[in-house]
Amino acid sequence: MTVILEARHVNKSHTVHQHEEHQILKDINLQVRQGEFVTVMGPSGSGKSTLLYNISGMDQVSEGSVYFAGEKISALPEKKLAKLRLNKMGFIFQHSHLLKNLNLLDNVVLSAYLAKNSSKEVIRARALRLMKQMGVDELASHNITQASGGQLQRISICRALINNPDILFGDEPTGALNSRTTAEIMDILDNINAAGTTIMIVTHDVKVAVRSQRVLFMLDGKLVAECNIGKYNKQQDIKARESVLSEWLTEQGF
């Protein structure tokens, strides 16, 4: 299977008070294959979100290299990197970060308008199809105060998919949702992955991680363990998968 994302000896440091260097990521090496669903877990402060931002090009690594589809993106100028993120990557965050001055449909189409890969008519039609698939098409003309948290997260997924990305990143994408809505969002992500989109997310939630194919565990800025639990399908006993993953996490001290 083709490697779509790779980190080689990635380090990330920040300068804190009195010019002291604080290292957050320590010699990260990983590969994500096309079509995989990968989850990163670990205690708070272990570097999970920092890892996601650095390998997606949202932040600049201090040392090492990041490759996306064979291209060394850690060496790209910011303008080219921003264009690549816009066209090839989608992002979902814990909170929707939708623009208050736009209705929900306009929030979905905005990044596609910026990419200018299709006409506005084609983009709006695709946005409405996505919103219908997510069950939120009736909210197209609504603003963000007229939708629930779960509905706003579905809108965020539509926004992340509008440019048909090769990979979808999520930073605690269900962290602000209740258990029922979390399950609904994960069903959506399962379907997106089954259709061929690579997914990589950060989460604290076993019920979220258990939907993925591979779980990476971070501790003190390092990737220290990996659990390959195989592709999830709806015929499997989800409780059995949760038991396997929970036992493995306990072994890691989580």
From TrEMBL:
Report the domain of life of the source organism: Bacteria
Q: Which Pfam families match?
A: ABC_tran
Domain ABC transporter, chain residue ranges per copy: 5-245
SUPFAM superfamilies xrefs: P-loop containing nucleoside triphosphate hydrolases (SSF52540)
Gene Ontology terms, MF aspect: ATP binding; ATP hydrolysis activity; transmembrane transporter activity
Q: Which UniProt keywords apply?
A: ATP-binding, Nucleotide-binding, Transport
Recorded GO cellular component terms are: membrane protein complex
Protein name, UniProt field = ABC transport system ATP-binding protein
Which organism is the protein's source? Paenibacillus amylolyticus
